[in-house]
Write a structure and sequence with these properties.
This is Zinc finger GRF-type domain-containing protein. The protein has 119 residues and is of the alpha+beta class. The chain is 32% helix and 15% strand. The chain has one domain. It is elongated, with a radius of gyration of 18 Å.
Length: 119
């Protein structure tokens, strides 16, 4: 079910809970280092297991070099198989709904403060 690929050649922004400017829509339910069996990157270090929130692989877990953000060894291996197009679109729609709701929550206090200053 797993496949290997190169993080360095993929062009994706590897990171704990970010993809580009977006963060994970939900908190992780497990620490990235708390899994079995252990996977080691090419550096010989235990590779953390992250969750992708990219449009092509939303919710799909993968292992990557712990130093991927600064180059690392290029190790990347998918933990989960590919999702169906239906589930991929559903996850993206749910992520977008969560991010939109969060942006509204962040805007509301600023609008209220602005009204208080005007009146």
């Amino acid at each position: 079910m797993s496949s290997s690929g190169s993080a360095a050649s993929s062009g994706r922004g590897w990171g704990r809970s970010t993809v580009g400017e977006r963060r994970s829509p939900v908190p992780y339910r497990e620490d990235p280092m708390e899994y079995q069996p252990v996977k080691y990157c090419l550096c010989g270090v235990k590779a953390p297991r992250w969750i992708s929130w990219s449009p092509r692989n939303p919710g799909r877990r993968y292992h990557a070099c712990v130093d991927a953000l600064i180059g690392g060894c290029g190790y990347m291996e998918w933990h989960d198989g590919r999702t169906t197009p239906f589930l991929r679109q559903l996850l993206l729609d749910l992520c977008n709904a969560v991010w939109a709701a969060r942006s509204q929550v962040n805007v509301a206090p600023m609008e209220a403060q602005s009204r208080n200053m005007e009146g």
